[in-house]
Amino acid sequence: MMERKGRFRHQSLQDRKSIQKLLDAVKRGIAKGELEFGDDTGEITLEPKGLMTLRVTATQEDGQSRLDLRLTWTNDSENGKDSGKLKVKGG
Q: Which parts of this chain are annotated as the region Disordered (predicted)?
């Protein structure tokens, strides 16, 4: 859903395999330095470069689980906060 110029948002139900393919595409886009997102309502291209801030939030409440991954970057990458080394375990 395109909310305003310079912003892209999409929501849909996906299975684990589809999510894995999407995350693989994000991984390749970061490596390439170009991320393209789009659907029937709009599209956006981002160009990640330099140091990036990674924020991970994982919660379990009331029978619901949620994982938020946020990457941010600017031309001046020295302003980020560092919480130490991130540990992630998969199955």
A: 72-91
